[in-house]
UniProtKB/TrEMBL annotation, chains A, B:
Pathway: Metabolic intermediate biosynthesis; acetyl-CoA biosynthesis; acetyl-CoA from acetate: step 1/2
UniProt EC number: 2.7.2.1
Function, as annotated: Catalyzes the formation of acetyl phosphate from acetate and ATP. Can also catalyze the reverse reaction.
GO BP, one annotated term: acetate metabolic process
Name listed for the protein in its UniProt record: Acetate kinase
Gene name as annotated: ackA
Residue numbers binding ATP: 14, 210-214, 284-286, 332-336
Gene Ontology CC: cytoplasm
Family: Belongs to the acetokinase family.
Co-factor requirement: Mg(2+); Mn(2+)
Length: 399, 399
């Protein structure tokens, strides 16, 4: 049997098809520019001989409906999906589950309505997800659609972590609280970390660092999330590609009053023009490292600020947890940047954190330990796999 | 000789008069409701026999000019100030020195203009300070007026700490950065901590926690401030009496868009209706402790959130500093709340932080050590004295 994972945005659909006996991804692809004059279509798959194949195409995809049609046609045409009865489940990534969803659920009308009701909390994401969910339910009436939420893993946080120090009615009436995101990734790497530590997850205290274009940290006690750096939205926390992360809230009031920006302009500024991009004009960490090596001071500041913020979160979560078994690095930067991993752990010997610089510097793929044998806190690099986690959770939910 | 310390607000003047040979405060007082129909006048002083005296009065004080006249008359009338030639200096507290002032300075027209130029950064404070400074310069033409800034001690922070991850022009053109406040208090307790540790301040790594109605933490490396929790304004950081401290900046955008609040309303909400008050309806920690003991859950949450945020800052600054000699508690809550000090240090054994619960529970005034003899990090309670620090800095500046 197989599981299809869909990540629908407002004008795109990303997908992966997994074989559920060995969890190999036998196809993955992306449809971009839905609704525009010319859509972008890409797919990679493993053919009958076990060879990787890929195809690219451009043609108009007016709406999500045609997008799903195309995906199914293409999967069947390339022989990776015989027919729809082969699908045990469809897993949908949904960014925001609001305060309601603590676990994945099979979609019905009520679930759809609940996801719709949190659109004000995730105006950029949930509408696109809903478009994909609706079409999938129509197209595959016999296959259960399961929604897997980026927020669900963080639902174990206690009120001290998820409440903000603002008037209570903003929480009770407007649902303003910390939700946290990247939950599927934090959950996936937590499980893998437990396996690497050879310890039950329920006995592991971890700090997981998902460092990609978006970046977040999570504090995990006995396998459960107790705190995370993203908040009501993915804007809070670490320095990210184009997002500011933590900032004096009064900066927004200052911009509003003195620069005469409106809510949309301030949101754009902090979400799209800030972070690494705002500090040094570039948001790609590889390029920034390169520029810093060549002596560019703004690029160096962007790296130093990233490290400074990371170190503060490591310390904060260390204090919250009291004892830490491992710190996990994942995401494009966490998996690949020797320098960021090194810098984030530098000077933390007193906390029992000692990096094995040679192991850290090895550029090899896959899961690995980069701390010294004596380091009390293990340092782990674990490539994340949110799609696999979604597929497995979707199957578990319908089984 | 004597030093007069003035803290002028928009409708109030607080003052203290110090004898500079032994630094005893021989008089202190407050004028409130300047410009209203009826002003509030209070003074305490030590008379010729060494006895404490006090007086209260109500009469109209139309402006700062009449306020200063009153203070001088009153000090002379009670015999604590023979005449103005006894004053070596007048020290003025100024909340915001902007990026320019790293040290106290004698006021001249240029300095006044510079303080005026940062009014947009401190619209609630600097105008009141300037009113006091102008009048003092006119009234005491022969006595140097020295301004001592709440921001100055934090000016040693490196760019990684004071820059926000927002577009660079907001820093270069609009001076948007972390400044930090309560600097005079953090500086005062740092010096006292070094004395208690019997170590040169320049060799001390400290975390200083000023916990009053406003609250801030500072990280001090080798006697110099390297980070602090308040930012562009005193809104950022810890949970305070009525201020939110850290929050997802997107919450402001949400309020703006969905609750239709304007900049002034959001500022009022986060500065005046949030913090402890927002969580549990009360902003006085003594009252909150009392309610929590009686089983009030919202009061307990307010305490728990205060502790959670404090612990995160202790951990963050610990990681930044790498090694910490002492953690210092000051301010109304830091000096008096057994429970907050206990909770902030609980579970931090792994960081070498061990409280002596009996010493912590003793309700005695004055400087004291509340850690166990074995605690690697010393825990100190140090009553702050910002007025004394201002007086001493003012005298040092003119000497
Ligand atoms: N070898 C590398 N060294 C440093 N950074 C890298 C490296 N490879 C990828 N990255 C960075 O990873 C980031 C993208 O991470 P990724 O997890 O793919 O992003 P997303 O959040 O969009 O999924 C980019 O900043 C990229 O420069
Ligand atoms: N014994 C006490 N126990 C707990 N809190 C106390 C105690 N005494 C004073 N406080 C608290 O200290 C806070 C005021 O601190 P203070 O430093 O005087 O404020 P400000 O920032 O206005 O100078 C109030 O919340 C008050 O309840």
């Amino acid at each position: 049997m197989k599981v299809l994972v869909l990540n629908s945005g407002s004008s795109s659909i990303k997908y992966q098809l997994f074989r559920s006996d060995d969890w190999v991804a036998i196809a993955s692809g992306q449809i971009g520019r839905i609704g525009e004059a010319e859509g972008d279509l890409k797919m990679e798959w493993i053919d009958a001989d076990g060879q990787s194949q890929c195809s690219k195409d451009n043609r108009p995809i007016p709406a999500h409906q045609e997008g799903i049609d195309h995906i199914v046609d293409k999967l069947q045409e390339q022989g990776v999906l015989a027919d729809v009865t082969e699908l045990s489940a469809i897993g949908h990534r949904v960014v925001h589950g609001g305060p309601h969803f603590k676990h994945p659920v099979v979609v019905d009308d009520e679930v759809e309505a609940e996801i719709r009701s949190v659109i004000p909390l995730a105006p950029l994401h949930n509408p696109g997800h809903l478009a994909g969910i609706e079409v999938a339910r129509k197209h595959f009436p016999s296959v259960p659609s399961v929604v897997v939420f980026d927020t669900a893993f963080h639902q174990t946080m206690p009120p001290v972590s998820y409440r903000y120090a603002i008037p209570e009615y903003l929480y009770t009436e407007h649902r303003i609280r910390r939700y946290g995101f990247h939950g599927t990734s934090h959950q996936y790497v937590s499980k893998r970390a437990a396996a690497m530590l050879d310890k039950p997850l329920a006995e592991c205290n971890l700090i997981t660092l998902h460092l990609g274009n978006g970046a977040s940290a999570a504090a995990i006690r006995n396998g459960q999330c107790v705190d995370t750096s993203m908040g009501l939205t993915p804007l809070e926390g670490l320095v990210m590609g184009t997002r500011s992360g933590d900032i004096d809230p009064a900066v927004l009031i200052y911009l509003w009053k003195n620069l005469d920006l409106n809510a949309a302009a301030v949101s754009h500024l902090l979400n799209r023009q800030s972070g690494l991009l705002g500090i040094c004009g570039v948001n790609d960490m590889r390029e920034i490292s390169h520029q810093a090596e060549e002596g560019n001071k703004r690029a160096q500041l962007a790296i130093d600020m990233t490290l400074h913020r990371l170190k503060k979160y490591i310390g904060a979560y260390y204090a919250e947890l009291g004892e830490v078994d491992a710190i996990v690095f994942t995401g494009g930067i966490g998996e690949n940047s020797v320098e960021i991993r090194h810098g984030a752990c530098e000077g933390l010997k007193r906390l029992g954190i000692e990096m094995d610089e040679a192991a850290n510097a090895e550029r090899i793929p896959g899961e690995r330990v980069v701390s010294t044998p004596d380091s009390e806190v293990k340092l782990l690099v674990i490539p994340t796999n949110e799609e696999l986690e979604i597929a497995q959770q979707a199957l578990a939910t319908v089984s």
